[in-house]
User: Fold these one by one.
Assistant:
Number 1:
Amino acid sequence: MNQDYIQPDNWCIIEEGFDAERVKSSESLFSIGNGAMGQRANFEEQYSGNTFQGSYIAGVYYPDKTKVGWWKNGYPEYFAKVLNAPNWIGINIEINGEELDLAKCTQVSDFRRELNMKEGIYTRSFSAVLQNGTEIEVNVRRFLSLDLDEAGFINYQIKPLNKDAAIVFKPYLDAGVHNEDANWEEKFWEPLQAQHTDNRGFVTARTFKTHFTATTFMHNTIVLGGSPQTITPQASNSEDHVAFSYAISCPQGQTAAIQKIGGYTVSMNHENTQQAAEQVIDQALALGFEAYETKQKEAWARIWEMSDITIEGDVKAQQGIRFNIFQLNQTYLGKDSRLNIGPKGFTGEKYGGSTYWDTEAYCIPFYMATKDQQVARNLLAYRYNQLDRAIENAGKLGFKNGAALYPMVTMNGEECHNEWEITFEEIHRNGAIAFAIFNYYRFTGDYSYIPEKGLEVLLGIARFWHQRATFSTYRNQYVILGVTGPNEYENNVNNNWYTNYIAKWCIDYALEQTDRVKAEYPADYSRIMAKVQLGDEERAAMQKVADNMYFPYSEEHGVYLQQDGFLDKELITVADLDKSQRPINQKWSWDRILRSPYIKQADTLQGFYFFEDHFSKEDLAKHFDFYEPFTVHESSLSPCVHSIQAAVLGRMEQAYTFYLRTSRLDLDDYNKEVEEGLHITSMAGTWMSIVEGFGGMRVRDNALHFEPRIPAQWEAYSFKINFRNQILKVSIGQNETQFALEGNEPIRVYVFGKEILVEPNGLVTV
Amino acid sequence: MNQDYIQPDNWCIIEEGFDAERVKSSESLFSIGNGAMGQRANFEEQYSGNTFQGSYIAGVYYPDKTKVGWWKNGYPEYFAKVLNAPNWIGINIEINGEELDLAKCTQVSDFRRELNMKEGIYTRSFSAVLQNGTEIEVNVRRFLSLDLDEAGFINYQIKPLNKDAAIVFKPYLDAGVHNEDANWEEKFWEPLQAQHTDNRGFVTARTFKTHFTATTFMHNTIVLGGSPQTITPQASNSEDHVAFSYAISCPQGQTAAIQKIGGYTVSMNHENTQQAAEQVIDQALALGFEAYETKQKEAWARIWEMSDITIEGDVKAQQGIRFNIFQLNQTYLGKDSRLNIGPKGFTGEKYGGSTYWDTEAYCIPFYMATKDQQVARNLLAYRYNQLDRAIENAGKLGFKNGAALYPMVTMNGEECHNEWEITFEEIHRNGAIAFAIFNYYRFTGDYSYIPEKGLEVLLGIARFWHQRATFSTYRNQYVILGVTGPNEYENNVNNNWYTNYIAKWCIDYALEQTDRVKAEYPADYSRIMAKVQLGDEERAAMQKVADNMYFPYSEEHGVYLQQDGFLDKELITVADLDKSQRPINQKWSWDRILRSPYIKQADTLQGFYFFEDHFSKEDLAKHFDFYEPFTVHESSLSPCVHSIQAAVLGRMEQAYTFYLRTSRLDLDDYNKEVEEGLHITSMAGTWMSIVEGFGGMRVRDNALHFEPRIPAQWEAYSFKINFRNQILKVSIGQNETQFALEGNEPIRVYVFGKEILVEPNGLVTV
């Protein structure tokens, strides 16, 4: 189902024509969110065709119990599911006695969806002929407010075209929702109270087990020909449901509308969620729909002002990068350090949990460069706040003395990924969490985070690696056995080069920072040492592991080996693999994948990406040439790294191909699964492909470096970087690069190593 | 729960005293079976304490669907569960208006269970005081007939001790049973019909999905003071239940009894199961309870006549081996080639499926030497009959051209083990299936099986190994990647020595037999070649793999390595492991087990057991000394192999310790899990420990060889071998060995290599 129905457009995602087969895909692609909540683009009105109903509240989850026949010791007891929240968007419509249902109309024409990414507004319009012969035109406008982030707004307009219409608007709230991925067909929500007054409805429900209470609310206004109407609705309640029924006569050619305000107030933020809901409604009504729509456009304009990337001469590439940036901002805005960036954001349920190593490895660079640096600091603090849980988690696996293993997946700091051994094996995640601390300091220059919080995290992680390594008398070196690297198409391997390398680096970096904090922040040092009790003996033992780590290497090929035994594989390149066998994760049995040489996502090359400065360009070329031919990129997180490295190596055609693949992964549905939701975290990789890949941006010695390149297909592109509270705009054409600075102080940048001074509010062309 | 409540006895398993905590363990230990059906030793009467109700019919299973979050391609859709069959043993008892329930009596005394292994009869007796003050004595006698193997017999006697008693016997049939291990709390049986006439009751039910129909039946006779009574029962039916109610007044001191005949007739064996059930009842009544009890003793005497092993001077060792031999014969008698030897027999549900490599690796030698050789041939034919399914199974994993991969676990030839990658990885099972063919011919001299059936199996297996091996250009040899060897505490390893070794052997043996069949059975050869289409090119390619197989070897230690990378492990011996860490499968997380050096069961040493003649005794000693110290024996299949090898190496104390562990594994509950059922297949390993270990029996060049040894704790032991239709009895004392032959022709045997002639019905002392 490699779709191509999305119209190319610089600012909008557009679908034209109604196709029931595309409904679930479009529900994913047209999803909207505001960081606090989000929803798939489900129809407001009844729809009896195939649909995947989804509405989500940030931070609200459910620990679904898991059943596996051969349970492995150490598995967590549950898998935290992103929880389908009560439905507040529902508005059933009756026209001349018939229920409006696009699956049942005799004709649907001019069907159009548009997600205006510039403004953050989703619209849908169509004309339809009902079975009773009534012809109508429908226009729906919907947004989740960035300003009032517990509220969403819907304006649902109906114009009868060929006759007068008796229209009944039936807006409702429904907490009787379930998760598509529930293991036990259990109910996740316990209804507490459903009530209504005038035009307001409220359903309060509490999640089982986690006890999040949420009040789902609505307020409705009926409008005829532009004038608000006073209609007393019929109302009905059940324990988890509130519904109103507004009957209105609409003459042919006039427009009847319902303006529904709805959303959630949650016990994470309020003691009395019902009272809070009343206040949100009051606030929303005080200014009204149009004022919030104006604010919405202004808020998105502010986001784009800083984070937009323009591409000239390639509308599909432009649409792709904006879609990625838009979705990242819909998912996470960095306001709340209790939240994180779920792999599907608010667009689906698959994967569960909210936090993977994706956050540190892929997302932080984007947020760091396009937001206030507090946002990245919040993301780091999220892990600091969960350090005790990471130490507990390591304890469950037999580690001691403050060793920390951050979970594979989490909602609250506990491991919540089970059912597969990689939970225990994919420990490289710990490395990315330490790397993010290094990266944050490198980019922002804000060292304060390390004495305040970062060092404790670094030491917990270093202790883990120290204890996790094994001394091999045979090799007279330390080895790390039984891991899964970033490439999940290998399980339980020994000496994954990436893991060994980042383990060594983590220990070295933690000990270096310990020394620096001791020298420069003695009070913090004393506080931390009193807590973590790091003795000289342990320090020396840790250093010994780092200094004597084993790295598998092939003299013959002159490359580090992804893991021990990689050369035993039958090294047939992807190019020589019959196309009918792809994607191998759908065509091959798991054992065949495991013993094949095929790489799901950058693994050794991920190490070359993180630690680029440790290796020469020749080294990179050698490793890229060795591993790229075996990489199938069946993870969304893979092509961006290869795109960056191809750009570094000056292989622009290849870099461009990888760029398109990463930026339009969902729009063009490369992996044939967009129905299930979008790949949010890899979207930050797309941003990196342009800024770090084509733009060649790096931070070295407290300065920005660029090696600008441009794909042949583009006329020009531009991006902005918030570098230490000054905004640098970089515009790259086929022949020149311009730097413009919004700030107060001049800034040194290096272009291909040559120093350039950019003056405040000045422009430099290279 | 290391129990020691079973009384030592040469012929009986005896429990004295009632302990509610032991009920589930005793239900396992006192299980009875007759090859066609079996049951845990559940009480007949109501019991409200903790119990695990289990009744099983050979060959009747249910494909339970499985749910795993991260499904791997290639997993089978279901896990075949050993199905809990309808209950026919139930007899509720009312005494003076009170329900008899041992959990509710005010006093229980003289409680005794006895499983008489010599006779195949299980008895239970106790005295009890009911809450209403009635004192009673109860004696129950139960057996599953070996002669009429669809029927079981119960004689349930009650004697009121302190007053007259109004007794109501309420025998019933109940198809509303469930499996303890059901994944979905689904019902597995669909009731079709429940009916009764006179004293007969019938419930016919059909399994969902597999559509086995079983009629569960009963017939009841009430006896007072030895005289059968004519009492018209009250009867009640529901859709899955039939119950009778017989009221009788029993004077103090007299005995009232119910004789219940019950059992199953199944659609595997009958077109009309209800009619068949009527006939079984007729047959049972024609001779009656006592006659069938006599026949039962005679049938078990015949079994013991051939398969008994006597041990003098060590009652616990004697009880252990008889318990093992008894259970094997209760589980499988070799009459029906559709059946096989489930790992828990009829004593529990855990593991599911009926057939593992256990059959070929452990059970066949026992059945071959203690039964008519047709029985072993039936076990081989079971795999031949499933060859097409094994080829299909390999096809699902991407293998072609007739390559066969026998399932990890099966009921009907299909793979039914899922939820864990070893399904795909533990492919060494294929090797044991080929080895059994070789072993059958070696032992019986019956070559005819190979041209008739065996060669096709051998070639399917050889093709699998050929395709499964990978050519490593790096090693310039063939490697086998991504396997799990017999030691399941290693997963997804490369070049497991045992697997590589047996793979090479399978190819060599298949090609040798192809040549022999071509030369000696040209008609069979043509038939087989027309079917399997083995060309010269494929043959040569197969041979090349066998000739160039890679075997990991350590020069330093002079041993083959269990797999690549074994020496990277931290080689701390089990002796140096803190006892609090054992058993590691309960104390450690799975990842820690995987990267440890600890060996769950003989792996490299399993290869030395199978291919003993390929290696010198010095080689064996070196490998035993290297691997034994890392072996935790947390599989029931492990100690027997180590016992045999310790005996071969003359380390009798160690051999004896392993023997006790294997023979009393369940009686002494070494693994703390006997509640779940018995370890049936490993019991054949116990037999091997004595015959092949202590007795040193081998077959070489069509002759029996012995190297008799005896543990210091024993005065003497003896066993019999059916060698090519002559029965050789071997009696081994501390100073001499006697051979006695029941047969027609003299037989040459070798004792420590020295030839000895044993005449028919003669006796030789060495």
Number 2:
Amino acid sequence: MLVKVFVTPRRDILDPQGRAVEQSLKSLGFKNVSDVRIGKYVTLNVEASSPEQARAEAARMCEQLLANPVIEDYRFEVENS
Amino acid sequence: MLVKVFVTPRRDILDPQGRAVEQSLKSLGFKNVSDVRIGKYVTLNVEASSPEQARAEAARMCEQLLANPVIEDYRFEVENS
């Protein structure tokens, strides 16, 4: 099953990479851009017998490795593939 | 308008970060994981008069800065917000 994981910096956490990209976009002429946040987009395949099992594994992977829950939020989607 | 951009390494391009994460997941006990790919997930706000205008701007931002079309693919979604 295909798992898509979206990891984003938490709202209340400074995102220096997002700031830098926002400045770059503005200097390229995109003046109407704001609130740029940079996160990670992880895709992976899990051999699982059911979507529920894949979801449970994905949640554990996020907690243990893919996201840092102190400074990042995550969500994921599971697709039969 | 809220723009969500998904940038992924192209299929035919090696993804060393994905490889490293896959190895780490396996050593954590997730033996049934494969094909891990790590991309970027960028969210931003665009002041635009229509979704079409926001989409056109987002495409230009991706081409010019957010993605490297030589080694990365991108797609994006525009939401009224």
Number 3:
Amino acid sequence: MIVSGIKDFVISPGSRSTPVVILLAEMAKNNDLNLFIDVDERSASFFGLGLSKKNRRPIALICTSGTAATEYASAIAEAKLSQVPLVVITTDRPMELSNIGAPQAIDQMKLYGSNTKDFVSFDLQTAVDTIKDYVTFETQRIVLAAQKRPIAPVQINLPFRKPLMPELNTEDPIVKKIAAINSETRLNQKFIDHLSGRKLVILAGPEVKDYHQELLALAQKQNIPVIADVLSNIRQNSPEVITNFDQIVKNYDLSENSDYRPDVVIRFGGTLVSAPTSRWLQAIESETEIINVANNGLADHTLSSNETVDIDELDLIEQLTIEGLTSEPQFTERLLKLSHQVANYQTRYLENDFSELMIPQILDEHLPEDANIFLSNSMPVRDFENFYQGKETRQIYCNRGANGIDGVVSTALGVSAFSSDNYLLIGDLALFHDMNGLMMAKRYDLSLTIIVINNNGGGIFSFLPQADAKEYFEQLFGTPQDIDFDQVAKLYGFDYYQATDQAELIASLSTPKHQKIIEVTSDRIKNLQDHRDFDAGLKKELNNYVKNNH
Amino acid sequence: MIVSGIKDFVISPGSRSTPVVILLAEMAKNNDLNLFIDVDERSASFFGLGLSKKNRRPIALICTSGTAATEYASAIAEAKLSQVPLVVITTDRPMELSNIGAPQAIDQMKLYGSNTKDFVSFDLQTAVDTIKDYVTFETQRIVLAAQKRPIAPVQINLPFRKPLMPELNTEDPIVKKIAAINSETRLNQKFIDHLSGRKLVILAGPEVKDYHQELLALAQKQNIPVIADVLSNIRQNSPEVITNFDQIVKNYDLSENSDYRPDVVIRFGGTLVSAPTSRWLQAIESETEIINVANNGLADHTLSSNETVDIDELDLIEQLTIEGLTSEPQFTERLLKLSHQVANYQTRYLENDFSELMIPQILDEHLPEDANIFLSNSMPVRDFENFYQGKETRQIYCNRGANGIDGVVSTALGVSAFSSDNYLLIGDLALFHDMNGLMMAKRYDLSLTIIVINNNGGGIFSFLPQADAKEYFEQLFGTPQDIDFDQVAKLYGFDYYQATDQAELIASLSTPKHQKIIEVTSDRIKNLQDHRDFDAGLKKELNNYVKNNH
């Protein structure tokens, strides 16, 4: 593993994994390795997911045999979809114990099915001369495979016979490294010429981290509007950046108005948080050239891309910058003014009483410049998409591949492991789901401020058609759990604050404690009404504005 | 589902599963159905596992799409190995949203690989005339398949398009039921004749519930010794029942002494809790006829069975009883006396000071006659194997298929759902692992007394070779979590007791509260020494006894 360049290991204790973890602990003495121990494999795997999301490098999960390995399944499904290179090392019983009733011997071969892109099982105890060379090569190959596009988890299965205690103090083997090769493509010059001067929009989706500064620089230099997903990490107070496009297209049918319809959309990044924006793409695709750039494994569930460019994004951005790609100035101005209008409405509206809607804005104004903000599914990320303006120095994270509400606490803690200013915005249900994840904060003294919006149940469901099934709603969807978060804080040694208004929330954010739970009590019915009222007012405002500015 | 005979449903809320759960809630009005709602799918699946273990009938798990479905993986692996007929209903995004970046759309086809024995995906919204008949038939077939030997979980995947709200108040469809067919075989008469009068032992492993009374009656009537695994549920104060065979063969090599070596072992049930007994089988197999009876899918990881009989156990027991199978009386007497000797030693020894060793005996003496006792892996089930005598009216449970320490609380609660006297013996680490499971006790007011042996970490590892890796032991294996169980009890509304000696443990067991956590603080090093001391004394005693009674 060391030769493959992995530095971070999340280990869940067990017996079968003994040879691997003992040797790792031994190697950690003379090598720059980070070993994390987490007894709950589900939490451990999401924690590793968070580490890798943060550090942009492969990390290894190591567990013992049996259901320990199956506990990883959810985080692996998430990693597959959010393209995180988890290297999953499952230790196993030897072949001669399979299928014959031996304890703790489940079938671990290709355990994660299509959620891992590659699989090997090494019988390290085979008495064959070439085994060491083979394993050295194959380990590097599979770790490299995990990092190649589409980035995805891989599984290495290691069956071990007893005795499980390895020999210590042996020398590290000398090994040859495999070089990673990057493919390079140049874009057709004609293609760039054909774009320039037309009504252009850049769409920056989630996970454009590796090139977000270059993309923003292009937009700013060339005055091209950027529709910025909350997870793009491009959001900031810059005139070209549109942070409220979801609000616009949700409340006004922009696709019908040719004044606001782009000729070309250049799309970067993954699946958008904003469903209305996705629907807008579908509505305009017959009249607009929608170019999907390589990222996200070329996937586009909106089926609106009518052109796909398989090229390194940085190369493309560089070429577009050099060639001086421009957009039609009137179109840019019109679109940005519309966005500005919505921003004004929002500012006025949010001077009203304290509500869930206000939280993204409060956090935006009061969190440190370089905060890591982890957003839970499902309401927090949506509210942030709508009401968060952003700072370029901040990083926003979310498990937005499989969109689970599981493992959120652990993933946030993984993200937080090497930083000091970390925040998690989460609902009561998702926090409960991965409450065990808090143990890692306690054991490793990790810094995290958790803002839990406690509306006692699943807030998202009030917005969905299920809300009409009143008879079953609370039992099947609302599912109030009546959790006492003060007790939760006590159990894990967190400080606890209750915030019933804006001033209390701001005050509790600014206390110097580094492990806090701030509970904001909310009400699902009121929250639904707040969102509806906001949208109704905006709808009116947008219609008037467009009518008067035609 | 109703037509397939399923009565128990464990539902984890979500959006995609709306059509199924709403219709179920509607049907529950006029049908005798039990719906449980558990927001944590991992806990939910283990809870369902427990329900099915208790009720001996298939239960359905229902979840939404995405990682929710992967959360079931561990309980399904356990169910596969412990032969529990879980019917796993995963709702899914429709085909047209797969592999193209749609949110929450993971690949759910055959998600659990070889841990489910059968799989179907129904497109219920297909506009084909025969779809209703097909689904009705296929659902009954797959639920029946789950219950046939080898009993195993099955997956039904249900992709749904929006809108997700079903039509209510429609009539139940009229459906034809499929009849289950039992195969019957008669045993060769010669075979039975050949067994009678020889040195016979019956070995009753785990999960012989369906015929444990008949098996015990046979042994009692014919004076055949029964080596009773703690999970056989045959253990009780009856002269033929040997409850301490693990202690005997661990401390004295019985295989070398022909006085104590049976000619024939008739083996029922699954993989034994006792590893020393398994090793004893391996040691005697060249000179002993070891007959493996159908159960447990014919599996025998000891590879010691030299004969396998594929027959219904009840039929076999009935035939053996009718034909008057006997054992050599001197052999029976000799073996039972040896066991009695060990029991005497144990009684004398356990008058010493309070220790983990004493707990099974204390529970045996002070729990109600009809208690359900759930044993966690990994130390509790081992200590019970050694130190629990038993009552025929009690039921002992354990997740002893994959032997995980995950999901133990939820499984125990599932077992407890329809009974009042329920007990869980568990270590601190396993309790932490599935602490979320306690939410079900709170929500459904389930009765459970948890005796948690808190030795602050993984007690089992002190007994394994890893204990020699002193430098890494606490970090990698001991893993102390410093959990405050008083806080845990407060969080979930349990009463909390601390028991530092025998009297306190007995007193706390007898309080009338129905949701309790009783914490017994222990020490891993002392516990190891206690076990070693016990064995050393017994070894001496056994050697003397056998020498003097040759």
Number 4:
Amino acid sequence: MTEIEIRVGLKPGMADPEGANVQKALRLLGFDSVGAVASARCYRVTLELPETEALAEAERMCRHLLANPVVHDYSITVAE
Amino acid sequence: MTEIEIRVGLKPGMADPEGANVQKALRLLGFDSVGAVASARCYRVTLELPETEALAEAERMCRHLLANPVVHDYSITVAE
């Protein structure tokens, strides 16, 4: 059994209204050191597979369902 | 300048309809080894601070804005 963390973010240059709003809100709250904020969706998926196969399966999940290659970048890691 | 990754997930036992729907969709697509799926929001925040101070500032951001302590767990890491 392997726990995989999949992070689906936006490609550089794609509009990210959630990130922009978080940035604005943080600055209004006085967090003056805040620069860019980028939002992403993360999925923690438990797979009944050993690590190597789980990583390959997660890659297929991203290609088939979780990420849209036109707008999304994704990364896959084994969760600690 | 430090890039911080903030992950805001749901506390155990909180309803996670997005995670449940992703799980259902993956199984319908034939990913039979999928067990639990938990969704989370992630924020990549750039801070004009050295690493230690940036981590402390991110902790404050979570407490003041990004996470609701009633329903959310969060984790903060320095992004690679």
